[in-house]
Amino acid sequence: MSRLADRFRQGGIFVWFSGTLLAFCLAMILSLVGFIVAKGMGYFWPATLVQVQTPEGPVLGEITGHEPARGEETEKIQFRVGNRDIYGQDFRWIPGASMGAPEYPKDALLIERLEYGPFIGRIASLSHDGKVVATGPQAMADALSRLPEANRLRRHIQSIEKGQVGELNRRIEKLRLSRRRLEAKGDQPALQALDAKTAEIQTTYDQVQAGLEQARSEARAWTLNLQTAEGQLKDWPLGSVVRMVPANAMGPLDKFGVYVSRLWEFVADDPRESNTEGGIFPAIFGTVMMVLVMSILVVPLGVVTALYLREYAKQGWLVRAVRVAVNNLAGVPSIVFGVFGLGFFVYGLGGAIDQLFFADSLPTPTYGTGGILWASLTLALLTVPVVIVATEEALGAVPRSQREASLAMGATKWQTLWKVVLPSATPGILTGLILAIARGAGEVAPLMLTGVVKLAPAMPLDGTFPFFHFDRKFMHLGFHIYDVGFQSPNSEAAKPMVFMASFLLLLVVVVLNLFALNLRRKLRERLGGSTF
Fold this sequence. Notes:
12 strands; flat; 6-stranded antiparallel beta sheet; 4-stranded antiparallel beta sheet
């Protein structure tokens, strides 16, 4: 009893208590991450297709869930039956007691389509220009062999639509705006030159459209005749098929190939089907770009403010009040920052920029609408208190002797700050930046008002001058999770996407923080100084 009292007085028991709580928190974090990874990563593995007989007819699909028996209700099994365009739903709950013995047909397959989600059934025949060229198992074999060429043609069409056609449309729109400006000036010679240039671009546009239509015709030439488990038939162009997975006829190595293919598509491709299928690359790219722009904006703003408050402002009640306000600013709800960003940056500042520099485009706004610049500025304001507090702490941690030595050598106060204090405080400033990245990357509410969208037509960075387009809207992983998980009409099918998007958002935050941590370590090794 006396030993316990001694430990209590010496504080040793509190050390154990703190360590236990820390271990508990780490275990909870690891459990959460493990749960997200397990739920998300398992989605890409090809599941076995099961066919059962029910009183309503045969059911073919993937088993995706179980509901145990409760009271008088018997066990229920959830099937992903796909074929949304035929059944009107992707999932069905079937009472276990009414099911017959499960079968695993080798000729059954899951077809991932560009529209209406997956088709689950069989291939009855394969046609070319309306003529049947193969039926039954041979049709499936021929379709599988022709699918890579169909996918290549589809990607070629998409690259033309997004590349050449998009660029020509931008040039035509630019010429249209130039024409409005010249018409207002009454400059006839310039108008004639502009019309000639427009006609030249229009000729190129017509040629590209003709080639595009020919490629589309080739893509529509091959047609699959699909058959559901109940015998319903449906024609589907092979060019609109992303992947065919005869899971019951595949070995582990083939399934692993499909798994890697699906995972790569998810990370590197564009979304489709209202973001519930395909990839999330634009969301990853938009998140990283937004965080980088926010970091570039928040560091100078926070460092200059902290320098003034600590080194130049006269210490007194006013400065203390400003510090209290800055600290309290970190507790303001993020949606309030979003409303401020919408009113001040988007409508105020953006509207003024449009009036001054983009009057030809009005009433269509250029900067007077949401964009990555306004979203980054809003998040910079949201996170600047973190950088200010961290920078002030880092400046205070610089040894007084270093300042006095610099001043004694004849350096001015500014030279001392620039050459001695700031380099020593840089690791501490980067600590504030790391905290700001962690806060800013996960915010969603302010972005919904200032620039993020469900599906962005183009990314902020591309090969068109000026290469980085601050006025463009963008996609964000946090908003993508909210949209797919809570706004999608088919939330059950989108559930794995939510887990995977959450995992990737955590991964992006960790990677950005590791980059900043590595930079801070290198600076600390080179400069020494602050241990903050």
